[in-house]
Design brief:
Strand content: 25-35%
CATH superfamily: Gcn5-related N-acetyltransferase (GNAT)
Bound molecules: coenzyme A
CATH architecture: 3-Layer(aba) Sandwich
Number of helices: 6
Distance between the termini: 32 Å
Length: 172
């Protein structure tokens, strides 16, 4: 299936909350994480602000439907991925991978030193997926402060800390 990945414009924001909610349905596969499928997501106004201030990409299907997005921001010399979501109907077609590759490409163009994120260790569409793209698990002192803060904030929101991990893709 053909699709395109492009930088988001403010007009895309209206579609993004529904995409994030649909994507999160996948967490119902894990009985301990079903609450994530029901969790609040950023609203349209927050997405507009992010599109104006951060790095947001969307993926558009062949029939011009918005199917997914990736939101990231530059922290120090790293591009940190805050959110990656692909709607249920479009999952498993390579769109998630294409969004991550777009972010990596942008980080290279900006001469940043790494792409970072936090994710679930054991879910097949989380850490193992990023590992196949070259991301490495970070432990202890190797974990930059912004990732430690992100992990702490997640625990405060109710995420199971022992199942979360920080990862980075160093860029030469
Ligand atoms: C993560 C997510 C964006 C991937 O989107 P996608 O369009 O399905 O991704 P792709 O089709 O490119 O597949 C990505 C990889 O995950 C694997 N994968 C995707 N869905 C999967 C599933 N339901 N079960 C097992 N593996 C799965 C694929 O095998 C693929 O691996 P590969 O690229 O090494 O072959 C999507 O699953 C999603 O929105 N999940 C809910 C939110 C989430 O977990 N976001 C990431 C937070 S860090």
């Amino acid at each position: 299936m053909t699709f395109i990945v492009r930088r988001a414009s403010p007009a895309d924001a209206a579609a993004l909350p529904a995409i994030e909610r649909s994507a999160a349905e996948l967490f119902r596969l894990d009985p301990a994480l079903t609450w994530l499928a029901d969790a609040e997501v950023p609203d349209v106004e927050q997405h507009v602000q992010a599109i104006e201030q951060k790095c947001v990409w969307v993926v558009e299907s062949a029939d011009r439907q918005l199917a997914g997005f990736l939101r990231a921001l530059v922290i120090d010399d790293q591009l940190h991925v805050e959110e990656l979501s692909v709607s249920q109907d479009f999952q498993g077609q390579g769109m998630g991978r294409a969004l991550v590759l777009a972010a990596i490409e942008q980080a290279r163009r900006m001469q940043l030193h790494a792409v970072t994120l936090t994710t679930f260790r054991g879910l097949p569409w989380n850490a193992p997926f990023y590992q196949r793209l070259g991301f490495a698990l970070l432990n202890g002192q190797a974990t930059p402060p912004h990732l430690l803060s992100a992990l702490q904030a997640e625990i405060a929101q109710g995420f199971p800390g022992e199942r979360r991990c920080a990862m980075n893709l160093p860029l030469p």
